[in-house]
Amino acid sequence: MNDLHELFIHKLAQQYYVEQELVDTLDEMARNTTNDRMSQGFADHRDETRTQVQRLEEVFAALDRPAEARDAAIFEGIEEDRRELEAEIEDDELLNMVYLNAGMMTERVEMTAYEGLTTIAEQLELGDDIQRPLESNYDEEQSAFRELETLETATDINSLWDRLTPS
To answer: Which domain of life does the UniProt lineage start with (predicted)?
Structure first.
């Protein structure tokens, strides 16, 4: 990799991989959480993520390149941690906390990835047909993060905090 354009393609391919993987991950978490609000939120974001995948495919097409996916170590780390905890935790409410935290971590990583992609696209003067889809995905990630923040302070989660925190 010798130039900014190739770095952009590399990072775009990583984000494409992340979004593709998240469709299945969000579906799994929506099915496995026992919190109805969280389940609906994961299901809704899964549907948004399918659209985000399509937008990234549009970006590749605008660059006159086939869509390609590249592993993203940071996403794999978050997923590995979630799976390990999922295997060790028997308490449904505690597992809901794991899902909430994994969701928030993933959204933060995605927001940062889209910020970086947008910055590089601006520097390369790639134009609106590249920048707009990236910005739309970023906006949806921000919205999903805010929804998770709201869940973090919801009554049922607060009762879990009370149950788990020593007096």
So the answer is: Archaea
- Residue 67, pLDDT score: 97
Q: What is the 3-state secondary structure (H, E, C) of the chain?
A: CCCHHHHHHHHHHHHHHHHHHHHHHHHHHHHHCCCHHHHHHHHHHHHHHHHHHHHHHHHHHHCCCCCCCCCCHHHHHHHHHHHHHHHHCCCHHHHHHHHHHHHHHHHHHHHHHHHHHHHHHHHCCCCHHHHHHHHHHHHHHHHHHHHHHHHHCCHHHHHHHHHHCCC
Q: Which fold has domain 4-164?
A: Ferritin (1.20.1260)
Give domain limits for the chain.
4-164
Nearest to 157 by CA among 83, 94, 87: 94
Residue 95 in tokens = 């597992």
pTM: 0.90
Q: Which residues of the chain have pLDDT under 50?
A: none
What are the tens digits of pLDDT across the range 7-43? Answer: 999 999 999 999 999 999 999 999 999 988 899 999 9
